[in-house]
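Technical note accompanying the year-one report. For the benefit of new consortium partners, we illustrate the data format agreed upon in the data management plan: each record pairs a sequence with a structure-token string. No post-processing was applied to the example shown here.
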Amino acid sequence: MFGDLHYRAPHPPNRTQVDFLLRRGAELVAIEVKSNPRFHTRMLPGLRAVAEPRGIARCVLVYGGKRSFRTTDGIDVWSIARLQQALAEKTSWP
């Protein structure tokens, strides 16, 4: 499914960290996890910051809510159930 698992926190530290970077070959999937059951755009700065470099195949925010959707700038917002489905079906890569 993927080869490596990384954590991204830039130096010097700021608010643009990402919880997980999954690597498959030259491509990365960035995943940010929040427990809040309500989506807020203020959950997205880390994913928006890492979306710029080449090689990021997908950015995913996993949160405690029930809806799954895509933001206007292409970030997938997934419920925990949607993440489980993607992992089980091996569809976490676009």
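Partners are asked to follow this layout when depositing records. The helical segments are 45-50, 80-89.
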